[in-house]
Amino acid sequence: xxxxxxxxxxxxxxxxxxxxxxxxxxxxxxxxxxxxxxxxxxxxxxxxxxxxxxxxxxxxxxxxxxxxxxxxxxxxxxxxxxxxxxxxxxxxxxxxxxxxxxxxxxxxxxxxxxxxxxxxxxxxxxxxxxxxxxxxxxxxxxxxxxxxxxxxxxxxxxxxxxxxxxxxxxxxxxxxxxxxxxxxxxx
Length: 187
What we know:
Elements: E1 2-5, E2 8-18, E3 21-28, E4 57-65, E5 84-85, E6 103-104, E7 107-110, E8 123-133, H1 137-140, E9 147-148, E10 151-152, H2 154-162, E11 169-177
Parallel strand pairs: 5-6
Antiparallel strand pairs: 1-7, 1-9, 2-3, 2-8, 4-11, 8-11, 9-10
Protein backbone atom coordinates (compact mmCIF):
# COMPACT_ATOMS: atom_id res chain seq x y z
CA UNK A 1 0.00 0.00 0.00
CA UNK A 2 1.31 3.44 -0.87
CA UNK A 3 0.13 6.35 1.25
CA UNK A 4 0.80 9.76 -0.25
CA UNK A 5 0.46 12.66 2.16
CA UNK A 6 1.77 16.22 1.96
CA UNK A 7 2.41 16.31 5.70
CA UNK A 8 4.77 16.21 8.58
CA UNK A 9 4.07 12.67 9.69
CA UNK A 10 5.23 11.52 13.09
CA UNK A 11 4.38 7.87 12.78
CA UNK A 12 2.11 5.51 10.95
CA UNK A 13 0.68 2.20 11.97
CA UNK A 14 -1.39 -0.36 10.16
CA UNK A 15 -3.88 -2.14 12.33
CA UNK A 16 -5.26 -5.09 10.41
CA UNK A 17 -7.66 -7.83 11.29
CA UNK A 18 -7.11 -10.96 9.27
CA UNK A 19 -9.76 -13.62 9.33
CA UNK A 20 -9.27 -15.38 12.65
CA UNK A 21 -6.67 -13.03 14.16
CA UNK A 22 -5.96 -9.39 14.93
CA UNK A 23 -2.54 -7.91 14.31
CA UNK A 24 -0.81 -4.55 14.48
CA UNK A 25 2.23 -3.37 12.54
CA UNK A 26 3.88 -0.11 13.52
CA UNK A 27 5.93 1.92 11.08
CA UNK A 28 7.86 4.63 12.88
CA UNK A 29 7.92 5.24 16.60
CA UNK A 30 6.00 7.07 19.29
CA UNK A 31 8.79 9.30 20.58
CA UNK A 32 7.19 12.61 19.49
CA UNK A 33 10.05 13.73 17.23
CA UNK A 34 12.55 12.44 19.76
CA UNK A 35 11.25 14.94 22.33
CA UNK A 36 9.18 12.59 24.46
CA UNK A 37 6.29 15.07 24.70
CA UNK A 38 3.77 12.27 25.28
CA UNK A 39 5.27 11.63 28.71
CA UNK A 40 3.52 8.65 30.24
CA UNK A 41 0.37 9.28 28.20
CA UNK A 42 -0.71 6.97 25.42
CA UNK A 43 -1.05 9.22 22.33
CA UNK A 44 -3.45 6.70 20.76
CA UNK A 45 -5.89 6.63 23.72
CA UNK A 46 -9.46 7.18 22.62
CA UNK A 47 -8.90 6.18 18.99
CA UNK A 48 -10.21 2.88 17.65
CA UNK A 49 -7.14 0.91 16.63
CA UNK A 50 -8.73 -2.02 14.82
CA UNK A 51 -11.83 -2.93 12.91
CA UNK A 52 -12.87 0.43 11.43
CA UNK A 53 -15.16 0.37 8.44
CA UNK A 54 -13.79 2.06 5.31
CA UNK A 55 -13.68 5.86 5.70
CA UNK A 56 -14.66 5.77 9.39
CA UNK A 57 -12.38 8.06 11.45
CA UNK A 58 -11.64 8.22 15.15
CA UNK A 59 -9.50 10.75 17.02
CA UNK A 60 -7.32 10.17 20.05
CA UNK A 61 -8.68 11.97 23.10
CA UNK A 62 -5.62 14.22 23.51
CA UNK A 63 -3.32 16.24 21.31
CA UNK A 64 0.21 17.14 22.34
CA UNK A 65 2.40 20.17 21.86
CA UNK A 66 6.09 19.85 21.11
CA UNK A 67 9.06 22.14 20.74
CA UNK A 68 10.12 23.58 17.42
CA UNK A 69 12.53 23.21 15.76
CA UNK A 70 13.51 19.57 15.98
CA UNK A 71 16.10 17.43 14.28
CA UNK A 72 14.72 14.39 12.46
CA UNK A 73 16.23 11.09 13.60
CA UNK A 74 17.84 9.41 10.57
CA UNK A 75 17.15 6.02 12.18
CA UNK A 76 13.36 6.40 12.06
CA UNK A 77 11.16 4.67 9.49
CA UNK A 78 11.77 6.42 6.14
CA UNK A 79 9.40 9.36 5.69
CA UNK A 80 8.43 9.75 9.34
CA UNK A 81 9.64 12.44 11.76
CA UNK A 82 10.45 14.67 8.79
CA UNK A 83 9.34 18.20 7.94
CA UNK A 84 7.47 18.22 4.62
CA UNK A 85 5.89 21.03 2.71
CA UNK A 86 3.12 20.22 0.25
CA UNK A 87 5.12 21.00 -2.86
CA UNK A 88 7.96 23.20 -4.03
CA UNK A 89 7.41 26.57 -2.40
CA UNK A 90 9.11 29.92 -2.47
CA UNK A 91 7.38 31.67 0.46
CA UNK A 92 7.12 30.78 4.12
CA UNK A 93 3.87 30.67 6.07
CA UNK A 94 5.02 29.33 9.44
CA UNK A 95 8.12 27.93 11.14
CA UNK A 96 7.94 24.51 9.52
CA UNK A 97 7.61 25.90 6.01
CA UNK A 98 10.77 27.93 6.55
CA UNK A 99 12.79 25.12 8.17
CA UNK A 100 16.15 24.56 6.48
CA UNK A 101 15.76 20.76 6.58
CA UNK A 102 12.30 20.66 5.06
CA UNK A 103 11.57 18.29 2.20
CA UNK A 104 9.31 19.20 -0.70
CA UNK A 105 6.28 16.92 -0.81
CA UNK A 106 4.35 15.01 -1.40
CA UNK A 107 5.46 12.45 1.12
CA UNK A 108 5.05 8.88 -0.03
CA UNK A 109 5.11 6.04 2.48
CA UNK A 110 5.09 2.43 1.36
CA UNK A 111 3.67 0.26 4.12
CA UNK A 112 3.97 -3.51 3.65
CA UNK A 113 1.35 -5.23 5.76
CA UNK A 114 1.59 -8.66 4.11
CA UNK A 115 2.83 -10.23 7.36
CA UNK A 116 -0.66 -9.65 8.83
CA UNK A 117 -2.10 -12.23 6.47
CA UNK A 118 -1.26 -15.87 7.10
CA UNK A 119 -1.63 -18.71 4.65
CA UNK A 120 -5.30 -19.26 3.85
CA UNK A 121 -6.37 -16.03 5.54
CA UNK A 122 -7.88 -12.88 4.10
CA UNK A 123 -7.84 -9.34 5.41
CA UNK A 124 -11.24 -8.38 6.81
CA UNK A 125 -10.48 -4.83 8.05
CA UNK A 126 -7.63 -2.40 7.58
CA UNK A 127 -7.17 0.58 9.90
CA UNK A 128 -4.45 3.18 9.37
CA UNK A 129 -3.24 5.28 12.29
CA UNK A 130 -1.48 8.60 11.70
CA UNK A 131 0.02 11.09 14.12
CA UNK A 132 -0.39 14.32 12.15
CA UNK A 133 1.44 17.47 13.19
CA UNK A 134 0.92 21.16 12.46
CA UNK A 135 -1.83 20.86 9.85
CA UNK A 136 -3.37 24.33 9.61
CA UNK A 137 -5.71 24.51 6.65
CA UNK A 138 -8.36 26.52 8.57
CA UNK A 139 -5.76 29.12 9.60
CA UNK A 140 -3.55 29.24 6.50
CA UNK A 141 -6.02 28.31 3.75
CA UNK A 142 -3.72 25.87 2.00
CA UNK A 143 -5.58 22.59 1.44
CA UNK A 144 -4.03 19.14 1.58
CA UNK A 145 -4.80 16.15 -0.61
CA UNK A 146 -4.15 12.62 0.64
CA UNK A 147 -3.95 9.62 -1.66
CA UNK A 148 -3.89 5.89 -1.05
CA UNK A 149 -2.39 3.86 -3.90
CA UNK A 150 -2.58 6.85 -6.23
CA UNK A 151 -6.26 7.62 -5.64
CA UNK A 152 -7.51 10.55 -3.59
CA UNK A 153 -9.02 9.37 -0.32
CA UNK A 154 -11.79 11.90 0.35
CA UNK A 155 -12.30 11.00 4.02
CA UNK A 156 -8.58 11.19 4.82
CA UNK A 157 -8.23 14.45 2.90
CA UNK A 158 -11.24 15.97 4.71
CA UNK A 159 -9.84 15.01 8.12
CA UNK A 160 -6.42 16.52 7.40
CA UNK A 161 -8.07 19.73 6.22
CA UNK A 162 -10.19 19.90 9.40
CA UNK A 163 -7.18 20.02 11.72
CA UNK A 164 -5.90 23.34 13.06
CA UNK A 165 -2.81 22.05 14.84
CA UNK A 166 -0.77 25.22 15.15
CA UNK A 167 1.46 25.57 18.14
CA UNK A 168 2.70 23.05 16.90
CA UNK A 169 0.41 20.25 18.03
CA UNK A 170 0.30 16.57 17.12
CA UNK A 171 -2.97 14.63 16.95
CA UNK A 172 -3.25 10.87 16.46
CA UNK A 173 -6.18 9.57 14.45
CA UNK A 174 -7.25 6.41 12.68
CA UNK A 175 -9.10 5.81 9.45
CA UNK A 176 -10.58 2.61 8.08
CA UNK A 177 -9.38 1.67 4.63
CA UNK A 178 -11.04 -0.74 2.24
CA UNK A 179 -9.16 -4.04 2.69
CA UNK A 180 -9.21 -4.47 -1.09
CA UNK A 181 -7.07 -1.32 -1.47
CA UNK A 182 -4.16 -3.48 -2.61
CA UNK A 183 -5.54 -6.99 -2.98
CA UNK A 184 -3.25 -7.92 -5.86
CA UNK A 185 -0.06 -7.94 -3.80
CA UNK A 186 -1.32 -7.71 -0.19
CA UNK A 187 1.24 -4.97 0.52
